Amino acid sequence: MSLKGWLLFSPWIITFLVFWLFPLVYSFVLSLTDYRLLSTDINWTGMKNYVRLFSDPDFIIALKNSFLFVIGTIPFTTAIALGLALLLNERFRGRTFFRAAYFMPSITTMVVIALIFSNLYARDGYIHLLARMAGLSPPENGFLLSTKTALASIMAMDIWMASGYYMLLFLGGLQTIPIDLYEAARIAGASRQQQFWHITLPMLKPVTLFIIVINSIKSFQVFVEIFVMTKGGPLNATFTGVYFVYETGLRQFDFGYASAAAYVVFAVIGLASLIQFKLLRTEWRS
Amino acid sequence: MGYRKWLKYAVLSLICAVMVFPLVWMVALSVSSTSGGTTLDNFAYIFSVNRFGRYLFNSILVAGIVTAGNILFCFMTGYALARRKIIGGKLWLYTILIVLMVPAHIVIIPIYIMMNKLGLYDSYAALILPWLVNPIGIFLVRQYISTLPSSLEEAARIDGAGEFRILFRIVMPLCRPALAILAIHAFMTNWNSFLFPFILTSSEQYRTLPVALALLLGYQSIDWHQLMAGSVVAVAPIMAAFLVFQRHIIAGITAGAFKQ
């Protein structure tokens, strides 16, 4: 233990206490009060905010949409990312180029991506025209103004954007598989398909678990896309958990109620990660 | 080439087109106008009518200071974790991992209230202070320094070099690869960030590019071509950084994921 050590470490101690621990605790305390912006008397309300949340149809819809968003994106993102990684795993000419191209969307500013797709999804936008040319009948006023397609359209954009990022993680995972395993399998006469199912896939379990968990945490918090593209509409069709926190907390300034919502969403995320860990771990062992 | 190889390239190129098309579309719209033809007027418009010069300046300033802060503070804290005994050292390591798992939405309201109470709402300080040191960076430096032999530092200490000198003249240069990765990571994350700059500022004076773009959508005074010109301004530095530092960026992502 040394004073110098503490001094060197102090930036993190301060940041952690001021910008993480204190807000986390403060947020929970707020959730037990009726504190609003400019309110003069603040009262303890106990669990009232939490009770109110579960009878608030807007919040129920928000949670449902968040779940839909996670369930509807993660299997696709994961599968596409794995497919891309397998395509790019072997060395060949142009590999670095393709890897960069696939990865490009995930480093692009989210707001910009949302703007581009707002244009593409709009009435007579490129994707709208393409859908019509393909003989489909896309919603009259564009994909984002229809309750049927708005959320799905944002989900599709997210899958497109995130696949390249998770592809990189899969590529990293593929490189940790010892080549000896494949050689042994080849000598034993295993086909390429057999090698994939019995070596590649089982060896990728830890990366896959990691990807599913972090992607779930991220997707549950979807906000920027929603804010730019639909503002939660039309008719709450894209209203999600974090959007509810923003709407009640920073537009209606109902700090107590919004904090309670934030904690519920937090709890749901924590619980979901835990369940995923348990499920995928046990499946892995068996 | 066999037909299998052709097929593979065809598939790869098709996916490539899907991945890159929206970005090409952005550029195409930004250099054209509603009346057709190629033009740079949209860029002139957003810099003269809208205050994109200001937004660009703010983005560069904030991301620049945050990046510099990350290099210095993640280095200091990472070094302390790797080489010094700190009371509750393990515990502090856990705080880093915990923060990595905590969703940001849970702290936005308290931080909004806090910044208001401190009189920092709508200022550069609000955009910069919370992000000067970040857990992934600390973790990266700590892991990196743990792999370095401490003999160099000890030799310098025997030679009578001061702590300050050892830290910044000997250890820091050795950490350059890790610091490069964390600097790029810090810059890109901050440059792209929307939620916190959006809720912690209100005036144009402190508005960053992503916030400006998000707020401009839907205004009568701006059309798609101009919005896309603004978008090009917002992503150009990131694309340039990506092309130059591709290997560092990819190394950073895989390092972050696999060293945990």
Q: Give me the strand/helix succession of chain A.
A: HHHHHHHHHHHHH
Q: Would you report the number of β strands of chain A?
A: 0
Q: What is the N-to-C succession of helices and strands of chain B? A: HHHHHHHHHHHHH
Question: Which fold does the CATH topology of chain B refer to?
Answer: MetI-like fold
Large-scale geometry of chain B: globular
Please describe the biggest sheet of chain A, giving its number of strands, its sense, and whether it closes into a barrel.
none
Mean pLDDT of chain B: 89
Low-confidence stretches of chain B: none
Written overview of the protein:
Chain A has about 290 residues and is mostly helical. Chain A has one domain: MetI-like fold (Orthogonal Bundle). Helices cover about 75% and strands about 0% of the residues of chain A. The radius of gyration of chain A is 23 Å and the shape is globular. Chain B is about 75% helix and about 0% strand. In chain B, helix 4 crosses helix 7. Chains A and B meet through helix 1, helix 4, helix 5, helix 7 and helix 10 of A and helix 1, helix 3, helix 4, helix 5 and helix 10 of B.
Furnish the topology, listing elements before pairings.
The complex is a heterodimer of chains A (286) and B (260).
Chain A: H1 3-31, H2 48-53, H3 57-87, H4 95-107, H5 110-121, H6 126-133, H7 150-175, H8 179-187, H9 192-203, H10 205-220, H11 224-229, H12 241-251, H13 255-285
Helix pairs in contact in A: 1-13, 3-7, 3-10, 3-12, 4-7, 7-10, 10-13, 12-13
Chain B: H1 3-30, H2 41-48, H3 52-83, H4 89-101, H5 105-117, H6 124-128, H7 135-147, H8 151-158, H9 163-174, H10 176-192, H11 195-200, H12 209-216, H13 224-258
Summarize this structure briefly.
The complex is a heterodimer of chains A (286) and B (260). Chain A is mainly alpha-helical and 286 residues long.
Summarize this structure as a short list of keywords or feature phrases.
heterodimer; A: 286 residues; mainly alpha; MetI-like fold; 13 helices; 73% helix; B: 260 residues
